[in-house]
Amino acid sequence: MRTAGHEYDEWSLAWERPSPRPLEEYDAVLVFGGSMHADQDDRHPWLIEENSFIQGLLERRVPLLGVCLGIQLFAKAEGAAVYPLADGPEIGWFPVELSAAAAADPLFARLPVRFDAFGWHYYTYDLPERAEELGRSTRCNQAFRLGENAWGVQFHPEVTLEIVESWLADEDDFPAGLDRAELEAETRREIGAWNDLGRALRRIPRPRRAPSRQPARAARPARRARLVARPARRR
């Protein structure tokens, strides 16, 4: 993101401290994942506040991108059900096909109609009532848009080889039956093209706004985006 001319701050409601800057100073919010699941409010009470926070961002039409747990939290904030994926987690590389609506989407129109994606998730969700579906794998929804300003992806466009290797090295959270060596080898083959595709998703379109009656302000040299981070593995 910095190479594209953006600035970003990392922050989480789970850290129980104020955001680095006043929220109105940020032009976009990126919501990433963690070791928790979207329906675990009883174990992680801050998820209740997170839900209200996301609902407020959606209401104010702040540009948003949710990744993995992030898209699940968007669905939850919209009142859709979030639940464990049938037949176990979807981990590794798998084909994603975009919908016809993606061809006219201001963010997803940059992507190929079909591509192999990297995913690591245990949960899925029902498509929110007002969502526009943008992509699917054979097992579940992989992308949607809410209104004109909020996008979510279930796959992981942000991962690097180093991130995937760190997840593979986690002995406490790796499903039995998956071949670590095979998944690492496939990641080494795919990661270059995958990172190129991921860069296309960092240019979140700014929403159309009503004309302002206020005097024009000087343009800032870089867009600021707030990254809502999680302290553990993305799901």
General description of the model:
With 235 residues, this protein is an alpha/beta fold. It has a single domain, classed as Rossmann fold (3-Layer(aba) Sandwich). Helices cover 22% and strands 24% of the residues. The protein contains four helices and eleven strands; from the N terminus they run E-E-H-E-H-E-E-E-E-E-E-E-H-H-E. The protein has helices at residues 46-59, 69-77, 161-168, 180-200; strands spanning 7-11, 28-31, 64-67, 82-84, 90-98, 114-121, 123-125, 131-136, 141-146, 150-153, 224-228. Strands 1-11-2-3-10-9-8-5-6 form a nine-stranded mixed beta sheet. The longest helix has 21 residues, at 180-200. The relative contact order is 0.24. The model is unreliable at 209-235 (pLDDT under 50).
Total E-strand runs = 11
Estimate the helix proportion, in percent. 10-25%
Total count of helical runs of at least 4 residues: 4
Classified by CATH, the class is Alpha Beta
CA-atom Rg in angstroms: 18 Å
Shape, per Cα inertia axes:
globular
Domain module count: 1
Mean pLDDT: 86
Strand content bin: 15-25%
H and E order: EEHEHEEEEEEEHHE
User: Which runs of at least 5 residues are low in confidence (pLDDT < 50)?
Assistant: 209-235
Which CATH architecture would you pick? 3-Layer(aba) Sandwich
The biggest beta sheet reads: 9 strands, mixed
In whole angstroms, how far apart are the ends? Answer: 21 Å
The CATH fourth-level homologous superfamily: Class I glutamine amidotransferase (GATase) domain
The strand line-up of the biggest sheet is 1-11-2-3-10-9-8-5-6
CATH topology: Rossmann fold
